[in-house]
């Protein structure tokens, strides 16, 4: 051994090997931070009917878009593009964006929710056009394949998984796996590849994006009637690692455990992505430090003056000439009304149907729609102790953890010197049913979350407690629709979203069944198109 | 009492040998040549024990008190020997003198102990019994030390903690004896107080030993450290011996004053000499001002912008007397503008065009630096280069890391540049590589060079552009991108194989 290495290893041992009362015991340091955002308390005013009082007329407009998530923003963009600029978009939060929320500190911006998009499928013309408009696609090569902006393609190293005492490269378990289980993975991915290519007898892709474009062939539709877990079992997959992996995937994309998630949705995770690019692969992702909030910003950049934030829509009612939209102005603390000709409700159905006070539909929703609660935390950290194996990646997952691990928000920065990092930690609350978990989550204090997160991350970063400088938490009560059994091709679900008298339209990913960016984007376009048509 | 004292012998023997081993090991690692170090240390130690034994005759009264006092002294000096040596190594001009003085002093004290102890016990035990027991314990203690030192202590505790740990043990024995024999010792309270104080000091030192270790990092270097500082970005260390001065950043050699001219002449002149009437120059990295020194030799140049992240580096190289001598005060030249910025961010917001651009970054040894060798970065470089301009990129060793070198070439060409790779020998680094990049394929190796260069002339220049087979690779190479960072993988693979 080289002399220098020897001394260095000595110093490491001297530093790390002895437990001393002065520095080794559990620290009682309080970690600063708070529970932020997602204005649940204001939102619940709607549920509890707590908003009464005189209503002030705030104006008239052609269209009101209630809700500024991706669906609502996409609808607004489409209206604007097609010459309808007399519209107002109302959103409860301080910034529109819905699940694509973000925060920032003196280090960088970071996501509070959705944080990447996969390389898009090439048949999504409108989507590709939006990405080109946003300079995410910089052009097309001779083969007609999109060239992606390389500052937005996730930098290497992308993913690592802590498993069997080491950080392995990639999230598909391989380090320390028996040969037999590795073969099951191989077979599984071969089968997924077949699904990816498959087309139904109707000529449609078996697994398409948006999901409503998928083939309705019975052989694929019946996958929606069993769980992902049952499907694995039926197909002879016994590997515990593979089961963990599939459960990780359905929790990651849908906030749903694989024994509850429809096998159709579970397989869609692997088979829906078919994107081809000049400089990326279909499994590559596009990301920004602030996550999809960057895209939300791009969606609304041409109509920022029509976006009204801090506005909680409380009632949407038909009139003789159109639709009255009543909202609570959070800043002015009073109810206001906009008289519109049309309204797009770009909110989840449990809210949307309450706004139009349709009790029949509400009952159907309670039966067919369920939403998973999530907790997201952002940690500002100093230098972290690392386990052996791969270096810090963009996505860092711990095998067998309740959490989905963390994403490094600082990963996509170009600088050399990034002494502090921001880690975004994701925890879908899937231990028990959504209602119980939601209640439990809303009752927890900041310190409880901190303890939970530290305990989880301590497995991989011995000094995490001392390294964390700040930790904020956001609890999403209804983060996303859960694609449970019979959810994708269920006519009853389509029924609840029928437009009301060509005046009130609906757009939200819960109508698609899976909560992905493309679904929101097309939900918005679809509703906007219906509105435009209704004007003609 | 007899058993207790014999136990003390055992501890003393163990401690004594440990100090000797610590000194020997430390000297081997700091000074090299372990045979000489161990041999001289053991010699000095045994000799000084003899001196101690000789001196024992001058102790006539209060033997037990003296014994305890000596015990405390050994604990203090022996215990602090390793931290002291680590700290003094870079500072002391005659380190060996300090080393042998410490060994001598410890040895003398240990040498005093056994004779004193035998005299304390002489009236209590029959002589043959006494000799037998004392030496039995003494040698068992030595065996124990010899076994646990390499097997347990060095790997588990490290040298500094081992030395402190046994210091604590020594003082502990002293304190214990002072308490046990409080009635037989005059003014035992003072000794006890002393012992407790020393014990506390060593415990504190033990707890903070890691910091001591960090402080003494300079032992990494073979030469005398004449300057060391930490910036937010890196550790900057300057060493000097009779022949040369060396700069290390985070322990990696940046240049040696003995042959840096070979590197910097090769980096600058083949490119700059080929530019017609160069005026504006950009240097990314190169905070040592040595590249700038070469650039300033061209009178047509009106401005040089140097972008180096680390302000401490550029400050050091514009103020330190030895260093400004080396770079001829280049950073203080009126034509030179120094910016402390991130190179990637600088290029991303840059709108100027430069006639000559020098890229002198550290080797792509991690994902962070790897970004500065990506096609995205070279695209920005393309925008910043004037149409008739030339850029030069330091590109690691094509001999050690041919895949890395040619991957950089491939990446530069992928954004539309034409390239001319070349290499030369820099003894401190080995065979080193550079790549010229230009927009139109009109580069010709210059036939004339400035007068006064020590390495470069028309003949050596021609030779630099010839690559023998052992600096090439037949493997197809990928373009280094932000989202694949293949270069870092090539680099790691090749340099690891070379250094193993």
Question: What's the helix and strand layout?
Answer:
The complex is a heterodimer of chains A (536) and B (500).
Chain A lengths: L2 H14 L23 H8 L7 E12 L3 H12 L5 E4 L11 E3 L4 E3 L4 E3 L6 H9 L3 E4 L5 E3 L10 E5 L2 E4 L9 H19 L20 H4 L6 H7 L5 H15 L8 H9 L13 E3 L5 H8 L6 E2 L2 E8 L4 E7 L4 E12 L3 H7 L3 H10 L2 E11 L13 E4 L7 E3 L12 E8 L5 H10 L2 H12 L6 H4 E14 L9 H5 L8 E3 L10 H19 L1
Parallel strand pairs in A: 1-2, 1-14, 2-11, 8-16, 14-20
Antiparallel strand pairs in A: 3-4, 5-10, 6-7, 8-9, 12-13, 13-14, 15-18, 15-19, 16-17, 17-18
Chain B lengths: L1 H30 L2 H22 L7 H29 L3 H27 L5 H30 L1 H23 L7 H20 L1 H7 L8 E7 L4 E6 L4 E5 L2 E5 L3 H13 L7 E6 L4 H6 L7 E5 L3 H9 L1 H6 L9 E4 L3 H7 L4 E7 L6 H4 L4 H10 E10 L7 H13 L3 E9 L3 E9 L19 H7 L21 H14 L1
How would you explain this protein's 3D organization?
The complex is a heterodimer of chains A (about 525) and B (about 500). Chain A has about 525 residues and is α/β, with parallel strands linked by helices. In chain A, the strands form five sheets. In chain A, strands 1, 2, 11, 12, 13, 14 and 20 form a seven-stranded mixed β-sheet that branches. Chain A is built from 17 helices and 20 strands. Chain B is α/β, with parallel strands linked by helices and about 500 residues long. Chain B has two domains: about 1-215, Growth Hormone, Chain: A (Up-down Bundle), CATH 1.20.1250; about 260-500, Rossmann fold. Chain B has helices spanning about 1-30, 35-55, 65-90, 95-120, 125-155, 160-180, 190-205, 210-215, 260-270, 290-295, 310-320, 320-325, 345-350, 365-370, 375-385, 400-415, 460-465, 485-500, and strands spanning about 225-230, 235-240, 245-250, 250-255, 280-285, 305, 335-340, 355-360, 385-395, 420-425, 430-440. The longest helix of chain B is centred in the N-terminal third of the chain and has 30 residues, at about 1-30. Chain B starts with a helix and ends with a helix. Classes of the chains: A alpha/beta (about 525), B alpha/beta (about 500). Chain B: It catalyses: S-adenosyl 3-(methylsulfanyl)propylamine + putrescine = S-methyl-5'-thioadenosine + spermidine + H(+).
